[in-house]
Amino acid sequence: MPSWLRTLSLRNKLVLTILICLVLPSIVSMNVSSLLTRDAVRSQVADNSQESMRIVNQIVNGQMKNMLYVMNFIQFDEDLQPSIRELGRANDQTDKGDVLAYKQTIFKKMSTVINSFGNLYVTLLLPNGEYVASYSTFAFNPNEFLQKSWFSDVDKASGYNVKWIGAEPNYSQATNQPYLLAAAKPLRINGLTYGYVVVGLELSSIQQLFDQYKNNESMVIVDGQGRILVDKDSTTIGHPFPYYDQLPAQDGSSFVKVDGEDYILHSNHLTPEWKLVNMSPYKSAAHKIESFRKTDFLIQLFFLILFAVVLLYMVRTLTKPIARLVQTVVRIESGQLSERSNISGGDEVGRLGYVFDRMIDRIERTLEENRREQELKRKAELAMLQAQINPHFLFNVLNSIRLKIMMKGDSENAELISSLSSLLRMTINRNNEYISLHEEIEINEHYIRLLNSRHGDRVQLQISAASDTLLFEIPRFLLQPLIENAYIHGLKSKAGEITIASRICEDGRLQVEVRDSGVGMPPERLAALRNHLDVIPTQQFQETSSPSLSGIGLHNVFERLRLIYGHRFDYEIESGQDQGTQIVLRFPHQVGKEG
């Protein structure tokens, strides 16, 4: 069984089976009939298409006859010939006014004929360099025709014959067409050539006629070398017609295959060298004939389709609840736990949908209970972080002691008591779970001052916080465990520096760094620490030092930030032997609601 068939749903498999069993016999019957009658249909289609092409041939021939008429008019009109001959004999001694009069006479006579056609551009060339044109010659000198490669063939034309030039680049500013269809003939009397006439035909009228054909059909005029002279698409003009070698030698029809599809080629001679070619899909041309043959097939198929519709309706009715249940499962898998199938009924599918919805209800309630438990757990940790045994009286007593010591002039000890009071103040104030960064830094300054009072002034706290970050709110007691970790593990009872730095990242998050100049960690110890912070749950991670003032260790700080910010929080820890340790925290600096 193909892999794509195995992936189909039950309903699609049933539908596919029904369609194959009902439609395939009719299709086979029609194809067999088509093969048996193909030759007869092809002959009839070719005759019909050739008949319709004769209309186009007549119109194009009419345009070309207009070109011949204009050239013959200029050659044989008795009123026009004297002016042409006089203009052809003009030289430097001829009066300019006479030359202008000859040109005006010729132009007026030409215009009476040209205006009746409307899309012809006529040029009269004389051997002495004089010319008369029915169009503006501001940007084109008609004498340039004499330098064209085809002009020698014009001069060789015998008698009254015409040289059909083909598609010539547009030389008239009166039209925006890129090409004109050109023809030329010499003007002779008694075997002597006294001038040449060149007629250009706008392609727009022929292109509009060709454009009436569908996109998959093409009507072109080609020359004896197979180059396209006229096409509805001007970009193909001058390019070879790809199927020229498959055209019939005489006027008629032939069949070619293009990309696996049969096409009919019709050709009619417009001139001894030019051909009008029509290329159309066989199916399109045979549409009317094939429609009669299909009518019988459709009548038979109607009753099969009617039966199929009824059967498909029954299949859909039976399988629709299953499809809806599958869609519900997919949405629930994507995280939309509020989705329900709402399938009911007394059959097996209805009972399955009811049991499934009740199961999802229980799962959603369980997840909601777990979420509330996690929320309560996090708040309990913060409450435990701040919990003290009624420290109000201690805070008031310490303030009283501080005042008495200051009155005795011992400002150093008074300052230490002030720092201790500030720490106690933070434990007493439980109104906000977030404080500004500068308040958190101030707390840690007090904390370092108290640590130095116990062990001597051996640690310097450096602050390198960007001014635009000081008012950003962060979780309370975030930095104190990191400072204590750097003090106890990094410096290990020796003098050194601890630096707190902050800045705003490019993505808008707040970055806080805690660096120390201590002993650092070897690579294996750093790897083990990172593994603990990433993998091991809080209750399984044992700090190697004594608990900090807040009652939580380094790992608990990371877990707390993960609970609050989720995937928006990340960190870096860098350390080296005797190179100190750097901890970088990144998290959003604005939180609407915790978690």
Placed side by side, the strands forming the largest sheet appear as 2-1-5-4-3
Question: In terms of structural class, how would the helical and strand content be classed?
Answer: alpha+beta
The whole-number mean of residue pLDDT values reads 80
What portion of residues belong to β-strands? 15-25%
Can you count the beta strands?
A: 17
Low-confidence stretches: 536-552, 591-595
Shape: elongated
Largest sheet properties: 5 strands, antiparallel
What is the radius of gyration?
A: 49 Å
Membrane topology: Multi-pass membrane protein
Transmembrane segments: 297-315
Subcellular location: Cell membrane
Pfam families: dCache_1, HAMP, HATPase_c, His_kinase
List keywords for this structure.
595 residues, alpha+beta, 5-stranded antiparallel β-sheet, 15 helices, 17 strands, elongated
Q: How do the helices and strands line up, and which of them pair or pack?
A:
Elements: H1 3-6, H2 10-76, H3 81-88, H4 96-117, E1 120-125, E2 131-133, H5 151-156, E3 163-169, E4 179-189, E5 192-202, H6 204-210, E6 218-222, E7 228-230, E8 252-258, E9 261-269, E10 275-281, H7 282-285, H8 287-333, H9 348-386, H10 392-407, H11 411-428, E11 434-436, H12 437-455, E12 459-465, E13 473-475, H13 480-491, E14 496-504, E15 510-516, H14 523-534, H15 554-565, E16 570-575, E17 581-587
Parallel strand pairs: 12-14
Antiparallel strand pairs: 1-2, 1-5, 3-4, 4-5, 6-7, 6-10, 8-9, 9-10, 11-13, 14-15, 15-17, 16-17
Membrane topology: Multi-pass membrane protein
Subcellular location: Cell membrane
Domain HAMP: 316-368
